[in-house]
Amino acid sequence: MNAIFRLTLCASATLVLATPVLGQSVQRLTFESEALGRAFPYTVYLPAGYEDGDLDYSVLYLLHGANGNEQNWVTSGKVVPTLNALIADGEIPPVVVVMPGGGNNWWADGNDEPMQTAFFDDLIPHVEDQYNVITERSGRMIAGLSAGGFGTTNFVLQYPDMFVSAAALSPAVYDPTPPSHSSAHRSVVFQTDGAFDQEVWDSLNWPSFIEGYLEQDTVVPLYINSGDHDTFDIAYHAAVLYQRLREHQPTNVEYRVVDGDHEWSVWADTIGDAVSYMTGYASWPRARDAEVN
């Protein structure tokens, strides 16, 4: 079947790839990030009906792991057919999904590029300017795997007023120290003079932010999981995070242990469950310029 697709691009974004499937579109783009001083790549999933242009949608920011890129969730995580099926079955509302490319920066402002600053100061404003998305907390979700789960956890604990829900899949939330074969030891983000620096890790890891989160009133529902044979013992480390949050928000945190290692089969098989959980708290599509009560 032949189809004609019309793409209108703003001057601030460069189209790299557009793949129309089953009424939705997947576009790979870049925009200029002031914080990074370079192009910031991302892939965006736009649900069927988006081109009608009369609705604003909730947006999910979906982060990859260490050394990953903005296409991983599409190519390895098979997220597009998962989203299509969930939306078609009415299990989740249509959503916009933004998959940024963060390289090996662990979504942190460590001893490399300021990726956390770029995410909040550049990416979110760009998305909310260029796409038909809800620009309040009720319409923002955040999720990620491994190093992306590390970033997700830290983002939520530091900025709970930004996200209505979140999911951390096999999150690299090692406390106190990453295992020796974790890429954290080889990432410039956590190094000083070319060697892993425990103090830098501690300053960027979730225990540094948890007390501030617990002291404020906003609760971010969080879905956490891990493979039971995870080579980095994340089933244990994730359970520590889960228990700390469960004591604070017992009805707003979930933990799943599934069969598998630290691998794409775990994340591809569970992203649907995670998205279903997150969208249970998010706004459904609403008419443009609708009043928010």
UniProtKB/TrEMBL annotation:
The keyword RNA-binding does not apply. GO terms for biological process: xylan catabolic process. Gene3D superfamilies: alpha/beta hydrolase (3.40.50.1820). The keyword Hydrolase applies. GO terms for molecular function: acyltransferase activity, transferring groups other than amino-acyl groups; hydrolase activity, acting on glycosyl bonds. Keywords: Carbohydrate metabolism, Glycosidase, Hydrolase, Polysaccharide degradation, Signal, Xylan degradation. SUPFAM superfamilies: alpha/beta-Hydrolases (SSF53474). InterPro entries: AB_hydrolase_fold (IPR029058), Esterase-like (IPR000801), Mycobacterial_A85_antigen (IPR050583). Residues 1-18 form the signal peptide. This is Endo-1,4-beta-xylanase Z.
